[in-house]
């Protein structure tokens, strides 16, 4: 028996050796995975004092079949509508709490981040087109699609300050949404945090060299904003005003998953969407660029499962201290979470509906 196993292992090794050697020697012109920066942590993750690990059991579906890939959420309290961008190019709105779905406007691209404008319109980060404004009359206007001569490839997160300045991210100037996984596997900083001044039409780059720049949320006192870096599993604070203007500092690091959108709920908490949980598989991918190159090459021909599970959200204080967490092993790519009244709504890149959790019935109750 032992001799048979040894022969089997030798045979497998003989087959795999040329493959491994070929991968090692082959360097695709458009893909070069890098080692993770030294500050990337493989140590213990931050945890919240209250955790609901069965979020799917607590969830009910809203607008099922009408909302393909609802990525981010914006709430119009006056009108009672939730706005979300869908995979088919439509921005749709959902009545709260009724759940009726209405086609609102098609951008012609792939709307991701959404936030209400002061005039009742909507600012949209469209992955395919750029930063858009949709007027209350549903007129779509392109605000900007490039900065410093570099076109956006994946316009992603967005928020608006009280003075009308729009803050947004380009997740990558190299890879578009269809190839976002290649950006993650390459682990090179192609992302940027930017601002757009609607009075002057000027687009400014605030922070460069970000590892998949994602969600943005302006602080309630308007002095800073929080932005997420998906690959680095962290969110940082950028100072808009004051003595620290233009500087970046830590907000929360070593999250238990890969952050996507972030939203302030008006009640002292930021909600950070975790599109997937940290796993041993992802630790190995991050640690070894060779393995990432192998996955990238194989993925060109065969769909490789990327272990996207344990998605969820973490609520944190204005200082970045964890408060509560919602997750589920069966939940994947849940990208936008928003608290509205007693409900916690969330969307997903892969489902055709919004979900919501009644926080008054959850074991990880929001109220302290």
Automatic annotation (TrEMBL):
Chief site of localization: other
Subcellular location: Vacuole
One cellular component term from this protein's GO annotations in UniProt: vacuole
Listed Pfam families: SSL_N (PF20067), Str_synth (PF03088)
Keywords, comma-separated and alphabetical: Glycoprotein, Phosphoprotein, Signal, Vacuole
Signal peptide from the UniProt entry: 1-22
Protein's name in the database: Strictosidine synthase conserved region domain-containing protein
Residue span, Strictosidine synthase conserved region domain: 156-242
Family label: Belongs to the strictosidine synthase family.
InterPro entries per UniProt: 6-blade_b-propeller_TolB-like, Strictosidine_synth_cons-reg
Keyword check for Aminoacyl-tRNA synthetase: no
